[in-house]
Amino acid sequence: MNDNMLALENHLCFAVYAASHAFTKAYKPLLAELGVTYPQYLVMLVLWEKRVATVTEIGGALGLDTGTLSPLLKRLEKTGFIRRERSKEDERQVSIQLTPSGLAKREVGTRIGAAIGNATGCGLDSLGQLLQTMKTLRHNLEEA
Amino acid sequence: MNDNMLALENHLCFAVYAASHAFTKAYKPLLAELGVTYPQYLVMLVLWEKRVATVTEIGGALGLDTGTLSPLLKRLEKTGFIRRERSKEDERQVSIQLTPSGLAKREVGTRIGAAIGNATGCGLDSLGQLLQTMKTLRHNLEEA
DNA sequence: TAAAATTATATTGTGCACAACATAAATTGG
DNA sequence: CCAATTTATGTTGTGCACAATATAATTTTA
Fold this sequence. Notes:
homodimer; about 140 residues; mainly alpha; Arc Repressor Mutant, subunit A; 3 strands; DNA-binding
């Protein structure tokens, strides 16, 4: 309607974009100890849950394509947290699995996640509600 | 506490990260017509508001550093929407200003913002409330 | 079963995003 | 006024993120 609609401060898209960056920055010093970046931490979350996954499965969980994941997974392999092994049954797919070293970092990951949860300053229930709101927002945007 | 805390689906950080990507993807086809990327659109929002700004001012508004902005602004200059001119009074700073061509895209920008606002599927008031929540979240994360 | 289509991953190119470092102009303190 | 510091911007290197394309293995179909 008026000029206010154009103002940066009234754009939800920017508020979400800025909050996402704020999360990445908040995680950074904690993840540095672990030796991974934030997107690498997301991959670790998937693997701590599933233990083994194909590249496609990880991409589906995180919404990332192979152009992003291929080099990222090679870096995680170099760090020693995962192994990449071409499947025997179907040689098109690569099986990504935790190494003992990667599995051992699970507890550290849990601590880091909890620490950031605190840093949001949201109570546990309002945090759960916000989680649901963001999922709905994402879903609506992907529909349209 | 239990395993659920480690699950990807319970991480607010990931929900925000995914929503931010969803915004970028939703904007992409609309911005392609305009000939800019999503971060470039954010810079244009700042300039549509202020008309002229230094690199530092734009960085402050968007939370981006010069390593990101320097090349981005050169691309916007090549597109023809802005001019970069070293200030006469203080030769350390570069004045970024809209060209007539860049100013003329203001109406298109307003339409695009409104279109995405609709795509969120949020009513105007719940959208305003969510905006405030995300600002608070960002602020809390930057404090901690 | 041989050709066509599909599936899974990898590669290349462009554009963010930031840390670390570099440079040059302005400001300040002695 | 001159040296030291601060300020504003730029450059380099690493790591996402995705589109477009490539490759190779499987599956389908004729």
